[in-house]
Amino acid sequence: MEYLLYKLLSVEAFALVFILVLLKKSIIFVPQNRAFIVERFGKYQATKEAGLGFIIPFIDRIAADRSLKEQAVDVPSQSAITKDNITLSVDGVLYFRVLDPYKASYGVDDYVFAVTQLAQTTMRSELGKMELDKTFEERAMLNTNIVSSINEAAEPWGIQVLRYEIKDIVPPKSVMDAMEAQMKAERVKRAQILESEGDRQSAINVAEGRKQAQVLAAEADKAEQVLRAEGEAQAILAVAEAKAEALRKIGDAANTVEGQKAIQLELATKAIEAKQAIAKESSVVLLPDNATDASSLVAQGMAIINSLNNQKA
């Protein structure tokens, strides 16, 4: 009896363990951004995406585990010949992701290797269409063309290439030396052009400064001459006005009796001074008998003054 009970308990325990194993084998947990390819009897059955999934133990199996994340693959350095027959050493980085796990599993044996090789061949093909100078100037366009070409070829594999970045382009040493010499010549040329432009601008500035200085000097001289002429004109007008005012006052005074007497006195005085001057020039002076008369003396003085003025003239 005890033996039968022991056997029964053993069978139940075995059955319980078997059930637990079956449950463990039939339940699968798929991580986020991953996909499991399930095969049944070696044939594709289903694609299990993130979350809880069920399979039939011992019949179904997980044939492939595909990551749906973006992946970066280093493209090894390789040689490429440009359109102008220059050999370059080029390497890069390829970024892609799996869009269709089924195609990535059954469309190609190793999609990472396939995409890498495709990137290398496409890069050589695109570089062969460009000259050396363009490979440095139009690197962005080169990357875009490579991505477009790879996506066309990788579509049956369920792969999407997001971008391709060229890390380095290394030309031969002889080409590097020639490019360095060219860049040095360009720098010297730019320096000479800048220096000549500076000298030209400096000469222009000096000429403009001299021109402005001459113009300012001429304007200052003109203003000075104008001011001097205006001053002289005003002085002449002032003297003329003063003389006119003096003559007017003399004329007004001459119309009076006192003015006539003053004129006669002035004339007499002038006559006496004239006689004195004549006496200095000559030792003999002849005077008329009526020299004592004031009016006669004035008339004589006027005649003597006129005589002296004629001699001096």
Give a description of the structure.
This protein has helices at residues 2-26, 101-106, 111-127, 132-137, 139-154, 173-254, 257-281, 294-312, and strands at residues 27-30, 34-40, 43-48, 51-54, 60-67, 71-81, 87-98, 159-170. The chain is α+β, with helices and mostly antiparallel strands and 313 residues long. It has a 3-stranded antiparallel beta sheet with strand order 3-2-5. It has a 3-stranded antiparallel beta sheet with strand order 6-7-8. The protein has a two-stranded antiparallel sheet with strand order 1-4. Helix 3 (111-127) crosses helix 5 (139-154), helix 6 (173-254) crosses helix 7 and helix 7 (257-281) crosses helix 8 (294-312). It starts with a helix and ends with a helix.
Characteristics of this structure?
313 residues; alpha+beta
- Shape annotation: rod-shaped
What is the average per-residue confidence, as pLDDT, rounded to a whole number? 78
Strand content: 15-25%
Helix content: 55-70%
| Rg, nearest Å | 64 Å
Main beta sheet: strand number and arrangement? 3 strands, antiparallel
Contiguous helical run count: 8
Task: Output the strand order for the largest sheet.
Answer: 3-2-5
Uncertain runs? none
Overall number of strands: 8
> What letter string, H or E per element, gives the SSE order?
HEEEEEEEHHHHEHHH
What is the rounded distance between the termini? 187 Å
Structural class assignment: alpha+beta
